[in-house]
């Protein structure tokens, strides 16, 4: 079968790899129909994060179950499924607690494991990891494209909003206009935020933020952006979603936070070397909550909303490629020609 | 009158300064009877933090009201009072919210303002800032020495415990065996923690931690200390009190935190330049809460406990000096000859 493989900075190739097989009785094999390229993939693509070479890539799998191991009880071949970017056994302390990303079983997608940007994957702990999409929707392309972001970015944006403590009637500031930031806007609105202020650098993305319910947008940079956001919030917001993971965005998030407020952070910290934000956190008693999003904890709720048509993150996909187009997908994301790339395998 | 004045690294002098006067109708003048030297004073004493030279020092005032301005309603000359290290108007959004350290009135002790290590201070916003000690206890020296830590370190340790989410039955780890860390142990026990594990480097201080209710102590350093604390907590603690503010202690706090746990931080960040702890915070979804302690919010509750004899942080004072002995007090703190120095003016 074919799959995308990372060979070094800027070098993604689609090439032949071995077909996956059931190795453990808790495994499933899934034929991928849809997947995506993630902003967090860009860190290794740009050589800013270590990654195995050659290394399989992609961590947003959606497809159809082809085979299941003997111990898999809630899935059958033919089931339409999606998987969070993290694998979870579903039974350990942390899975029981809803913190699926801290599952004691240390498995994942990509690297030395199978990657979602390929024809098939072996899915470990299938009962714990895979989420079944009801049969009624299994072949509805529009629904599937709205469901796909639940594998990562939509649940990640939701985690930012939940971690920032957003509740009905609140004012929230979202730092970042990438796919996660846009999903953060959707999530904050879904939680009932009265005002959502989206901060970013790209007019076309801030237009999507408005489509997603942002009541105001701030397109300025640096100090000017912070001042504008503070003006709009009469001195700072109690709920800030940090959806980038860069040093400047962390600093911005803590700068626009109101004393006593909370920053919900979900951007993979990349290049946050200096802890300058800590001074604001300390002086203003601004809490930092969040981290890698426990998608499995959120996906059932959000899936219900997508299926009933009240949640649709699919506009974040501004470009679609097939499996052979994955390298072009990375290029487009890297050069910001696309917000997020949908891969139809 | 005489007061201690900072003249540069390692140089504290007791010298003549102008007597304070009522300047605003909301002021009081307080004759200091007791104050202390704080671990956070060591940062400028060691030249590790900018500070005005010459600059008045001390931010833990306790004494007797000498005069009040026309608008002061709840204090009279002769009242025995203490003041938190932060001044608060008591009326703004943040004071109303209990976040007195973010009071919109930007006043403080020390620097260009009066410092507590002196014969008298002008206390701005006296109604909002000063806390009256009931007359019955006003001349009981033992009580007063147990009350004095409420001006800062006891409430700061309490803020660490509250911020870390400590509740009855919990297991808490306290990082740091300075006065704040020791008060953190007291605070965690007072909140009902079942196990309190104190981490530090000084046997004599860890003995005080045990006296304060620590069920276990870890005296090792670095990786060994982290491993020992993780062993004791079967993989990490849900509630960690960071009571130092150094880079290594922040890293330790996040390292010993259990996935999904919370670090309550109250050590003034000093020398935390690298944000290495952020990787743990992100990967394990460990929250960071706390900051500069809103003492005024806590002092009434804790004062009640001190007055009824169920809370006594006074063993942190391992050395007592008079006003002329303040320079020697700094030296003793700096060289770790004393945990905390009591100043009887």
Query: Can you write the helix and strand succession of chain A as a string?
Result: EEEHEEEHEHEHHEHEHEHEHEHEHEHE
Shape of chain A: globular
Major beta sheet summary of chain A: 7 strands, mixed
Coarse structural class of chain A: alpha/beta
Oligomer type = homodimer
Largest interface: A-B, 32 and 32 residues
The CATH topology of the largest domain in chain A comes to Quinone Oxidoreductase, Chain A, domain 1
Considering the protein shown, what is the CATH homologous superfamily of the largest domain in chain A?
Medium-chain alcohol dehydrogenases, catalytic domain
Radius of gyration of chain A: 20 Å
Name of the CATH class of the largest domain in chain A: Alpha Beta
Number of domains of chain A: 2
Low-confidence stretches of chain A at least 5 residues in length (pLDDT < 50)?
none
The portion of residues assigned to helices of chain A is 25-40%
Strand content range of chain A: 15-25%
Keywords:
homodimer; 345 residues; alpha/beta; Quinone Oxidoreductase, Chain A, domain 1; Rossmann fold; 2 domains; 7-stranded mixed β-sheet; 6-stranded parallel β-sheet; 12 helices; 16 strands; 30% helix
Show the helix and strand layout:
Two copies of one chain form a homodimer.
Chain A: E1 2-8, E2 11-16, E3 28-37, H1 41-45, E4 55-56, E5 62-68, E6 80-82, H2 93-96, E7 120-123, H3 126-129, E8 131-132, H4 141-147, H5 153-163, E9 171-175, H6 179-190, E10 195-199, H7 203-211, E11 216-218, H8 222-232, E12 237-242, H9 247-256, E13 257-265, H10 277-284, E14 287-290, H11 295-307, E15 317-322, H12 326-334, E16 340-344
Parallel strand pairs in A: 9-10, 9-12, 10-11, 12-13, 13-14, 15-16
Antiparallel strand pairs in A: 1-2, 1-4, 3-5, 3-7, 3-16, 5-6, 6-8
Helix pairs in contact in A: 5-6, 5-11, 6-7, 8-9, 9-10
């Amino acid at each position: 079968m074919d799959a995308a493989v990372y060979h070094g900075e800027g070098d993604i190739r689609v090439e032949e790899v071995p077909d996956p097989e059931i190795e453990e009785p808790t495994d499933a094999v899934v034929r991928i129909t849809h997947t995506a390229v993630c902003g967090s993939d860009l860190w290794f693509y740009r050589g800013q994060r270590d990654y195995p070479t050659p290394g399989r890539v992609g961590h947003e799998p959606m497809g159809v179950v082809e085979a299941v191991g003997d111990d898999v009880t809630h899935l059958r071949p033919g089931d339409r499924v999606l998987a969070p970017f993290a694998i979870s056994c579903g039974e350990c302390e942390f899975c029981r607690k809803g913190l699926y990303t801290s599952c004691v079983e240390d498995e994942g997608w990509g690297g030395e494991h199978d990657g979602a940007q390929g024809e098939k994957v072996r899915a470990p702990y299938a009962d714990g990891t895979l989420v079944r999409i009801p049969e009624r929707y299994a072949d509805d392309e529009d629904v599937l494209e709205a469901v796909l972001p639940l594998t990562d970015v939509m649940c990640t944006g939701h985690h930012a909003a939940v971690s920032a403590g957003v509740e009905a009637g609140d004012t929230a500031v979202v730092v970042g206009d990438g796919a996660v930031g846009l999903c953060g806007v959707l999530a904050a609105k879904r939680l009932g935020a009265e005002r959502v202020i989206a901060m970013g650098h790209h007019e076309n993305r801030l237009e999507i933020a408005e489509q997603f319910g942002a009541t105001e947008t701030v397109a300025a940079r640096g100090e000017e952006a912070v001042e504008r956001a503070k003006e709009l919030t009469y001195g700072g917001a109690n709920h800030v979603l940090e959806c980038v993971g860069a040093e400047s965005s962390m600093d911005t998030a803590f700068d626009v936070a109101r004393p006593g407020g909370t920053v919900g952070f979900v951007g993979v910290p990349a290049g946050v070397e200096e802890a300058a934000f800590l001074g604001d956190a300390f002086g203003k008693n601004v809490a930092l909550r969040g981290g890698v999003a426990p998608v499995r904890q959120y996906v059932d709720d959000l899936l219900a909303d997508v299926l009933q048509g009240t949640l649709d993150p699919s506009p974040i996909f501004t470009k679609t490629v097939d499996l052979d187009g994955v390298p072009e997908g990375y290029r487009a994301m890297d050069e910001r020609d696309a917000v997020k790339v949908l891969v139809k395998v």
